[in-house]
Design goal:
The protein is of the alpha/beta class. It has two domains: 2-150 and 322-339, 3-Layer(aba) Sandwich (Rossmann fold), CATH 3.40.50.2000; 153-318, Glycogen Phosphorylase B (Rossmann fold), CATH 3.40.50.2000. The chain has helices at 2-7, 44-58, 68-81, 95-101, 108-115, 127-136, 153-159, 185-191, 210-219, 235-241, 256-263, 277-282, 295-302, 323-339; strands at residues 16-19, 35-38, 62-65, 86-91, 121-124, 144-146, 172-176, 200-204, 226-230, 244-247, 268-271, 288-291. The strands form three sheets. The protein has a six-stranded parallel beta sheet with strand order 9-8-7-10-11-12, sandwiched between helices. 37% of the residues are buried.
Length: 342
C-alpha cells in the first residue's frame, strides 16, 4: 500500500497515514507529502480510542485499511467516526488465514457477514480472495474489486543491476519471507536432500522458526548447501542472480516477492498451496511452475538448468501488476468512492 500511496498524484490526493505501531522501519517508504500519525500501540484494541480521535479530527473522504481485523474494527466503529467518511477494506491475505489468526471467542465469520457490506468498496488481490469474501459476506459481493499489489520495476531492477550469485556450477535457488510455519521453508529444506548435490539454497528473512530451521539444516547435514543470511537490502540482486525463486508456502495472499522475482526475470517454482494461479495465467509460458511440495516440486526445480546472468534478465511480470497500471486503477477507485454517497 505504501508503494501505491507514493505513486498517487499529490495534486489530486492529500494523504494521512495512520500507523498503529511506531512505524520506524517504514520511514524511508513513506510518501514525502503525507501527514503521518503514529499511535505507538502494541495492540489494535489499545489504539482504538486514539484511532477514532485521529479520524474524527482529520475528516477524511476515504479511509483505506489493509488488514482483516482492522477492517472489521473500523467498519464497526464507523458511526463513532462521524462525517461522511467512506471505508475501503483491503484483504492483504487469504481470508481463511485471517480467520484462523483471530481470537477463538470472536464470531469471526458472522462479523464478516455483518460488517463487510458496510464498506464502500472491498479490495481483493486475487479471484480466490474475492470468492472467499463473497462466500462469507454475500451482501458485499458487488463491492469487491480485484486490485493486485504493484511492482515498481524500474526501482527494483536498478537495485539488482549487479546480480549476486553463490559460486559453483549447480542450480542456485533463492527463497524469502518470514521464517514461520506459513512459509513452508521446513518443507523446502527437507526436499533439498532429493536434489542434485550441487544445488544450493539461500533463504532470506527472519522469524520465530530460525532456530528450528537451523537445527533441521544441521541434522540433515545440509550446512554447506542451505544458508539463512537473514534480512538483506541485497535481496533483489540475489534474486536476479538466482536460477529460480522458490515458494514452498502452506498459504499465501499474493506474495509480493513472487512478483518481484518475475520483474527481475527470475522464473518461479511455487507450491500449489500458495494459490498464485492468477499470476500463472498471465505470466509468460514457463515463467511460473506450480507443483505439490514433494517429488513434483523437486522435479519442477530439476527441469531448470543453471543460468548465470551478468544483469537482470528481461522482465516476466504481467502487465496488470506494473506500477502505472495498478496506480491508475487505485486512483480511479478512490475518486469514485469519494464521490459516492456516504
Amino acid at each position: 500500500m505504501l508503494n501505491l500511496a507514493r505513486a498517487l498524484d499529490p495534486a489530486r490526493f492529500s494523504l494521512c497515514i495512520v500507523a498503529i505501531g511506531p512505524a520506524d522501519d517504514l520511514v524511508a517508504d513513506l510518501p514525502p507529502s503525507a501527514q503521518v500519525e503514529r499511535l505507538n500501540a502494541s495492540r489494535l484494541r489499545a489504539s482504538l480510542p486514539r484511532l477514532v480521535s485521529v479520524l474524527r479530527r482529520a475528516k477524511p473522504d476515504v479511509v483505506v485499511c489493509t488488514l482483516g481485523y482492522i477492517n472489521l474494527a473500523l467498519l464497526a466503529l464507523r458511526p463513532l467516526i462521524g462525517g461522511n467518511v467512506r471505508i475501503i477494506a483491503r484483504e492483504a491475505n487469504v481470508v481463511s488465514a485471517t480467520l484462523r489468526a483471530m481470537p477463538g471467542f470472536l464470531p469471526s465469520r458472522r462479523l464478516y457477514a455483518w460488517l463487510y457490506p458496510r464498506a464502500a468498496a472491498i479490495i481483493a488481490q486475487t479471484e480466490d480472495i474475492a470468492a472467499e469474501i463473497a462466500a462469507l459476506a454475500p451482501d458485499a459481493k458487488s463491492c469487491v474489486e480485484i486490485l493486485p499489489n504493484p511492482v515498481d520495476e524500474v526501482a527494483l531492477r536498478s537495485r539488482a543491476a549487479a546480480p549476486v550469485r553463490r559460486p559453483g556450477d549447480g542450480l542456485r535457488l533463492v527463497a524469502a519471507g518470514r521464517l514461520t510455519h506459513q512459509k513452508g521453508f521446513d518443507r523446502l529444506v527437507t526436499l533439498m536432500r532429493e536434489m542434485e548435490p550441487s544445488t544450493e539454497l539461500t533463504i532470506y528473512g527472519e522469524g520465530p522458526d530460525r532456530a528450528s530451521l537451523e537445527q533441521q539444516i544441521a541434522q540433515l547435514g545440509l550446512g554447506d548447501r542451505v544458508s539463512l543470511p537473514g534480512f538483506s537490502s541485497g535481496l533483489p540482486a540475489a534474486i536476479a542472480g538466482a536460477d529460480l525463486f522458490v515458494l514452498p508456502s502452506r498459504w499465501e495472499g499474493v506474495p509480493n516477492v513472487v512478483l518481484e522475482a518475475l520483474a527481475l526475470g527470475t522464473p518461479v517454482v511455487a507450491s500449489d498451496d500458495a494459490r498464485i494461479h492468477d499470476v500463472v495465467l498471465e505470466a509468460p509460458s514457463a515463467a511460473v511452475t506450480i507443483a505439490s511440495v514433494g517429488t513434483a516440486f523437486v522435479t519442477a526445480i530439476g527441469a531448470h538448468r543453471p543460468n548465470p546472468a551478468a544483469s537482470p534478465r528481461p522482465s516476466l511480470l504481467p502487465e496488470r501488476y506494473r506500477m502505472a497500471t495498478v496506480t491508475a486503477r487505485f486512483a480511479a477507485l478512490l475518486t469514485r468512492v469519494a464521490r459516492s454517497p456516504a
